Write a sequence for this structure.
């Protein structure tokens, strides 16, 4: 078989979760909560399911949900996108990212991604006939090297994919970073795909800066948000993309033939919940910052070294004092022999960053974090 994606295997997130289940390890690998989504939200889903919301919703998503998204983007980021022409509901951020890449990348185009890079970016680029250009994020805190980006931009560059808050590194972009990006692409036919699925998980009093709120960038950018992350319901695979009308039009041409639309009753229930409980998103940074602090406190006596994560629900740790193994071998050993599963970073970068890092996920019940930390502190 002449594969179109010869280098693609099963994603590392699935591999490590499966290994955790096989070996009975505490699963701090794949990013999903081990607690349920809000009870009121589940009630609303049941009400909408039993209330007849079970047929094809509009291709772009139900209007009430797009209206709630517009209000939310306006209140958080200071720009109100038009629900008719600038917002599309998709089946997960993964679909929005795929659609956006297919919409703008032509065969032979280059797409710049920053390593470590979430693993759905490059296959989408390859299927569009493009070429991913990998630029490493710079240690110690995995930031974009803007000078290196300036040198990497060429006449072939069509798209730059950014991700803040960053999975797996937990770094966040500042307003000045977005200014720099805008300067670098000004006057060139380059688009931006901004993966912002962890928008409500930014800590220590810093706010998330969205490309959707950036005057110079928003006219040429796709901003992607995920309800799965915000509402502790990753299994529902519901997300959205905010982009200017011309880009939205192209994105929808792809969306309508990839999924056409997404689960009707879930869309209605989330629209209801956003109207009824706007405080959910407001409380999220505090909710997860407390979990980050607890996990970091519990891990402080261990031989892992780390700087508390600035965003996301992931914590990178350096294990160099514990082992000289490569990160995949260390994560396998940790899962199979020690009983705590983590994600190695090497499957998501090309050039080793020069640190021995693995990623733990802390969107877990306190007791799960306590049990895991107790084991990790014995190493
Ligand atoms: C950085 C990043 N982008 C996109 C996604 C995909 O989100 P969704 O589950 O909404 O497709 C994830 C999920 O883990 C992620 O971490």
């Amino acid at each position: 078989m002449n594969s179109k994606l010869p280098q693609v295997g099963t994603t590392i997130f699935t591999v490590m979760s499966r290994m955790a289940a096989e070996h009975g390890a505490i699963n701090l690998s794949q990013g999903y909560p081990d607690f349920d989504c809000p009870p009121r939200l589940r009630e609303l889903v049941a009400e909408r399911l039993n209330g007849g919301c079970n047929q094809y919703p509009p291709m772009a998503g139900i209007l009430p949900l797009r209206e709630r998204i517009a209000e939310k983007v306006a209140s958080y980021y200071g720009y109100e996108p038009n629900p008719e022409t600038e917002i599309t509901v998709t089946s997960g951020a993964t679909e929005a990212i795929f659609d956006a890449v297919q919409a703008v990348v032509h065969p032979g185009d280059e797409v710049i991604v920053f390593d470590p890079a979430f693993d759905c970016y490059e296959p989408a680029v390859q299927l569009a006939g493009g070429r991913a250009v990998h630029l490493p994020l710079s240690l110690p805190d995995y930031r974009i090297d803007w000078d290196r980006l300036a040198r990497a931009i060429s006449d072939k560059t069509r798209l730059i994919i950014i991700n803040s808050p960053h999975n797996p590194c937990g770094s966040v972009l500042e307003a000045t970073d977005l200014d720099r990006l805008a300067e670098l692409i000004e006057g060139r036919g380059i688009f931006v795909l901004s993966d912002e699925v962890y928008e409500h998980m930014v800590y220590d009093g810093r706010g998330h800066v969205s490309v959707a709120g950036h005057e110079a960038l928003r006219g040429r950018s796709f901003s992607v948000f995920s309800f799965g992350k915000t509402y502790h319901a990753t299994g529902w695979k519901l997300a959205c993309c905010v982009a200017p009308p011309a880009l939205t039009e192209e994105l929808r041409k792809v969306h309508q033939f990839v999924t056409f639309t997404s689960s009707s009753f879930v869309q209605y229930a989330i629209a209801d919940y956003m109207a009824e409980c706007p405080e959910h998103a407001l409380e999220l940074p505090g909710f997860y910052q407390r979990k980050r602090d607890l996990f970091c406190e519990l891990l402080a006596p261990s031989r892992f070294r780390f700087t508390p994560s600035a965003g996301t629900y992931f914590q990178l740790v350096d294990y160099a004092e514990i082992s000289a193994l490569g990160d995949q071998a260390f994560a396998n050993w940790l899962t199979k022999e020690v009983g705590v599963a983590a994600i190695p970073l090497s499957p998501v970068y090309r050039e080793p960053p020069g640190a021995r890092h693995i990623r733990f996920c802390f969107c877990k019940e306190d007791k799960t974090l306590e049990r895991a930390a107790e084991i990790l502190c014995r190493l």
In short: The CA atoms of residues 4 and 127 lie 7 Å apart. The chain has a mean pLDDT of 97.
